[in-house]
Amino acid sequence: MATRFYELEPTPGRPEKFPTEVRVLYDDDAIYVGAIMHDVSQDSILRELTARDNIGNSDWFGVYFDTYNDHLNGYQFIVTPGGVQVDARQSPANGEDGDWNAVWDSRTTLRGNDWVAELRIPFSAIRFSKAPEQVWGLNFGRQRRSTRQKFFWNEVKPQVSGFVNQWGELTGLKDLKPPLRLSLTPYISSYVNHYPYNEQGKRNASTSFNGGADVKWGINESFTLDATLVPDFGQVLSDNQVLNLSPFEVQFSENRQFFTEGTELFNKGGLFYSRRVGATPVGFGQVNGQLRPGAREADGSRRQGEFVAENPGVTPLLNATKISGRTSKGLGVGIFNALSNNVYAVLQDSTTGARREVLTQPFSNYSIAVLDQSLKNNSYVSLINTNVTRAGQTYDANVTGGLFRFANKANKYALDGQVVYSHRRGKDFNSERDIADQNGYKYYLNFGKISGQFTWSVDHGIESSTYNPNDLGLLFSNNSISQSLSASYNIYKPFWKVNRLRTYGSISYSLLQTPTRYQEAGLYLGGNTTFTKSFLTTGIDLQALPLARDYFDPRRAPLGRYYVRKPANARINGFLSSDYRKKFAYDVRYAARFFAADGDRTNRNTLYLSLSPRYRASDHLSFVYAASYELIRNQVGYAGGLDGRQPADAALLADFGGRGGDVLLGRRNVATVTNTATGIYTFTNRMSFNIRVRHYVSNVHYRDFSRLRPDGVESPVEYQRNRDNTFNAFNLDAVYSWWFAPGSQVSVVWKNAAARSFEANAATPLYFDNLSNTINTAHNNNVSVKVLYYLDYLALRPRRG
């Protein structure tokens, strides 16, 4: 029986005042954990109801297993007094991975001044060896939300690097037999979609019916196969669309469960960006260039050309499969594979109505292979390979990387490193040109002190000018040499009027790799703390940067000739977060950046403010509202490409030396307003409804223009074309979810979406005009119903008499 717990927050090491009692049992099918959490009264036991995997304003009890006792990887199972289940995986790559889910049972009840939790974790939910006698890493945790205290049975010290390595041990496990882990989760879904095309011969409404399944099979005691057959991701949360003025793509969050759950091995090294799988087709933006133009007939009449009737923006998957696990010797193995079919755009003749298909995405295979060997002292070595193979002549891509972490026996110092090689071969899509960035490399080293109140690290890295992992990974910019020195000093125990204090700082310096030229340098300082009585958390960061050079914004290759000057500047940003135990709470974020004068260009700055109040009406109902405003004044940046068909552009284009010559820059003001409102009602710990509404508007107004020559030389130009633009986006996601049985769910989802851009004279900086434009824009409405049913072989097999 475990009875003595030690506090982690806010006062590390202090023994628990209201004791916790835990007992562990096991049989041939599962491990059982029973716990009694003593308290002062029932009013002190907070128990907000929330959706699965969300603790909210509640107490909790958790059990943690490191089944291979490697001190790196583990499972955690948490339950709240309201019966809400939370589970996660612990790993060096992802830390706490809350997207991992298992099927397990739990019950809770209030008893006098105590609350009681019982957990049944089937052996099919976890992985362990066949050894006749085993030792697992073990810990128990508890939160008393009323006093904002967290406790652990085996003391967790915040000044020590790592979490799993600070667990205790569970002994006496004999003759455990890993069960056959086989489950099938078939699904059926139905969609009704409405978009007001209001075109003759084109239906505004459409319906679809889908079916498929997820399969989970334990190949042996260590490895599991997860497969999704004919997947359906139509109910995932909508992306937060934004206006992108940068030279880099927008990174979106991954909301598809198959690509977030159990991916700790595949995420090692940061080489896997799962949104590449099923992404926008590679030829999506080339369709307009393949339209047959209009022509003059022999009789003098004008024949209209083609238009784009359909151009799918998402590549549907045929299937995706993961095999992952870890042996008793600490070797982790992961294999991922996904297949997508051909995608076609449809072009239609304006006169005859004849249609033809244009390939925008060939049949493609995406694969990842990972080997990860756990070593002593919280160390590891890993090998990762990612590959994208496409049918036809278009190019394929392969990336191979090795990474390591070696810590000393005292877990005080560590050396981390990474070496990656990227290789691309074949032709550009729809082209006879050889693909660029055929061979590239990256390496990174970091050494430092990782434990104690004072920690520090020094690092150095190079990404070659041709390093390109972006077919299955995400890299915003390559071609860099970077180094930094970082330090942190933390006080973990309460003092004065605060619970703890964290301070940090760094000095960084970077160069362009080819040619070797200065990019930027910076000094960064910051800290945060929580006040003892009010539990108000606050933090502030300061940054100072001397004159820098942006080689990427001009969008000219090869890098090095053109760059945009960034004057010396200083930034301050911070946050306030009040006590979430109260019915009304709030978050505030603020930032300001001020630039030095650059010749006659003055008053360049950025201001940002966000307010997010939240109100918990009851333990069932809560609301969150977030509003943000950002104003960028006198920013100088790429103003867009010049179009020879535009009268105002033609003369400049010739004078600039064509499309690969000098660059048009613009001085602009950018104002962005975002409003997001969320309401959540939780009926029970298995049934909830939430609605989220987001409106985003960003307005760009150009004040003047200049010509960018090589080596950052700028000169004013007379340019009359109006390049102002406004972008509006609106999304509504309403979700009803009912887990009617373990692992089985019914979900009903309504999505409403609209997006529209306004250019030149149609652009407007007035917020309510943009709100009206958004409301009056054609909206796409989608209503869907999806049913998942979890079938476990162990529950279905005939029982012996």
TrEMBL record:
CDD domains: CBM9_like_2. This is Uncharacterized protein. GO terms for biological process: carbohydrate catabolic process. InterPro entries: Carb-bd_dom_fam9, DUF5916. One of its GO terms (molecular function) is hydrolase activity, hydrolyzing O-glycosyl compounds. It comes from Hymenobacter lapidarius. Residues 178-797 form the DUF5916 domain. It comes from the Bacteria. Residues 16-159 form the Carbohydrate-binding domain.
